[in-house]
Amino acid sequence: MKRKQVRIDMLQIVDDPRKVEDAYARQYDDLAGKVASLVSSRSGIIAEVGCGRGQLTIPLAKLLPRHRFNVVDKFTGAYSRTLTLLNKALSRAKLTRRVKVHKADYLDWLREEFSDKYVGVISSEFLPEIDSYELRMFLSECYRVVRHGGLTIHSFLSPIARNRRQKLMIEADSNPKWTKTPPKEWFSPRPDQVVSTLKRAEFRNLRVKRIKSNPIMRARAAEHLLESWDVKSSFWKKHRTRLVREGLEIPDWMIISGRKA
Ligand SMILES: C[S@@+](CC[C@H](N)C(=O)[O-])C[C@H]1O[C@@H](n2cnc3c(N)ncnc32)[C@H](O)[C@@H]1O
Description:
Layout: E1 5-8, E2 11-14, H1 20-38, E3 44-49, H2 57-63, E4 67-73, H3 82-92, E5 99-103, H4 106-112, E6 118-124, H5 132-145, E7 146-157, H6 164-174, H7 191-200, E8 204-211, E9 215-217, H8 219-228, H9 233-245, E10 248-249, E11 253-259
Parallel strand pairs: 2-9, 3-4, 3-6, 4-5, 6-7
Antiparallel strand pairs: 1-2, 7-11, 8-11, 9-10
This protein binds S-adenosylmethionine (SAM).
S-adenosylmethionine is lined by residues 50-52, 55-56, 72-75, 79, 82, 105-106, 124-126, 129.
């Protein structure tokens, strides 16, 4: 197998499964930069819902050294190992004092938080975990706990594919025929639905940003990515030729934000 990683016209082709994690980490670094640019540099506490193993939390906390973070995740089921990974990553990054970890259901946890406490409530790849009913409850709780002038920011992979490779990735991760962990309602909510739900929750100054993702995972790198996303091996077998030749592409990142006036 030819192991290589090259850049062509901003597209990064990854064939080597050992490079998948790095390619992903770079995506989160970019994402953290965009999220940090929306947040005021004044100090305050940011809540993050569905923090996982800190993929966004850690690069973001490094970029916002004056902020403290309260992060929550249920760390169960397919994500049961992530608490240990998060704690290790926070220790390595020397962030354990600034990032407080809570193991809880997000809604139970948010409902216990005081109103107007946070300068921001954020999430990354959490909206794919919930459905439209929960989205409404979640965003109105975000509104309650954010202070006036504060923000809510949600990033997620776009459900709207720009090409065949992205379409295949979305199919693998959302069709119950292929994924071991089918979503409740969607791969991700449509951006216009998030915007209208934010509006309904009374957020103003709504912004939608799309970041074109660049990595294409091909061959064994695609197989590795599918495994890490809990996609059944039958998907690899069925699409093997295409996955080796064309690969999969991470859909674009959406960053949607709103301000509490
Ligand atoms: C796809 S992961 C996203 C992890 C990370 N934020 C990222 O950007 O990659 C979704 C996370 O949401 C968490 N989650 C799902 N449902 C939850 C709930 N009801 N309460 C708290 N966390 C939940 C999962 O445990 C998981 O860590």
